[in-house]
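Model it.
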Amino acid sequence: MKTYKIYISGTVQGVSFRQFIKEQADKIGVRGYVRNLEDGRVEIFAEGIDEKVGKFLEVCKVGYPHSKIKNVEVQETKHQDFRDFRIVRI
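Modeled.
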């Protein structure tokens, strides 16, 4: 079981990126959340079986057709015991 905090910068707000990430997380079987940050980045917590989280990370790096990924920062973190994957609004 792996848990990662992921920060993505680029054109990732205002282009349905969070919805895309949620759909991919649900499809792959990853739990956690995605939210916009005030500095223009998107923050994602992703938790699940190693290979599923690895596949999800690859999707995050490629992005969605309307997004333009400039940088992806990944930090392994302690297990959070998420029950599902959500879009969080701040």
